[in-house]
């Protein structure tokens, strides 16, 4: 046979083989790797609001429909999950939390459930028994408004450090407030921080003192940094291996907690460049448990101007790490009297709160964010703080471009009624936390008075009806990372004793679900790949044990996460741990 004929036959065989393989590959691609069937699927997609089943291939959703439609995509290698009537939702997106702080909270004293100061003293005394001399005792989560009584000799509702110091003479103690905007320390910690009767209040902070001028142990807002800087200085002495092990352990613990509550994406409200470097390394190793949307924090304007372009990441590590936003903070918290108000506090007439970061410096950050195409997300709780941030944004936005920039105000807890419309007109997102309203409800009246509370506190309905994009979250570890708790609060607006808290501001169940899914995706420029159960989007799905869209309201709070799926993989299943 002539050589050219032989070559021609070989080429034809290659073409035929390639064509056959292409057909076979196409046929395989039509089948699913995983299907979820026999459930109630609430998609948060107007094109198909409800379905029975979902098909997944790789990390994407390839079909949503009836059981019969999805069964057609099942092959020999397909894994089938029988939902048995359970509710499947788009994976919850935590709209504002503190990721590594959540992990760290699992390694220190948990003070979130204590009901008295005496309980805290006992917990610290027990911790001292297993600590070596000079070792720091750390804790977080106490809130004086949740105690069953005001301790004798208290200043501003909080005791002096005397009883705490008596059980911890040889150990410095720092206990973070639930809000994250204050801390309580013992005498040893005050000494290490150099705080005495002559120490001036730092800018944006208050060293609370008794009638004699002595520090009580309560450090409000930036004042707690005097102690935390000492803690960080000691931690800086650890080896690089020890630091990495501590960091990666915190990431793992935070991931476990988030996944157990149905969270598949987490908006991390503040990470330094060094922390982002750590996230990136873990992403390279495939060790980020959930998807992170990270806001740059704790960096100077000069360093950000230099480094922001190199830190911009979108969908890095298989859509596990995105960095395209900056976090700033203009005021403190309402509970610690640190929120910046237009008028004095009802229960502290001498104060209108604090700005904790200079507004002019934040405005410079705004200009840098606009220059580099970064989103700016600014913490503002008081009505004065919200107004100042809106003013900064308005001065920074190119005319008519605010909506495209999707800048956010984090918390937006107390907004003057005159400023509600400004959120909508400027296209500013209200990044709120439903659970804060019902958690704070018992003492909001004391801080603001009834009139201001009713007109400006936690205005979900007013903002939504004005056309504002409202998102949801928990501010964890300030609150439990559970979306169920925040969804319940958003729908019922009742405090822990069942008292209604301005019920006219409630969300509907669908609005609450949207605030935790598609709205949070939009707030991160990710609505094309997340936030609804839609063909082509990432297969991030949360399965609950009951239908929170139809059960009696009281049952919403009792819902449990049965399964959390990230990219088509089961990352949490109740009862399997």
Please provide a brief summary of the model.
The chain has 577 residues and is α/β, with parallel strands linked by helices. The protein starts with a helix and ends with a strand.
> Strand arrangement, largest sheet?
8-15-16-18-19-20-21-22
Low-confidence stretches: 1-29
Mean pLDDT: 92
Q: How many individual helices? A: 21
CATH topology of the domain at 100-235, anyone? Answer: Diaminopimelate Epimerase, Chain A, domain 1
* Class by SSE composition: alpha/beta
Major beta sheet summary: 8 strands, parallel
C-alpha-based Rg, rounded: 26 Å
Number of strands: 25
| Fraction of helical residues | 25-40%
CATH architecture descriptor text of the domain at 100-235: Roll
State the end-to-end CA separation: 68 Å
What overall geometry do the principal axes of the alpha carbons give? globular
List the main descriptive attributes of the protein structure presented here.
38% helix, Diaminopimelate Epimerase, Chain A, domain 1, alpha/beta, 6-stranded mixed sheet, 8-stranded parallel sheet, 577 residues, globular, 25 strands, Urease, subunit C, domain 1
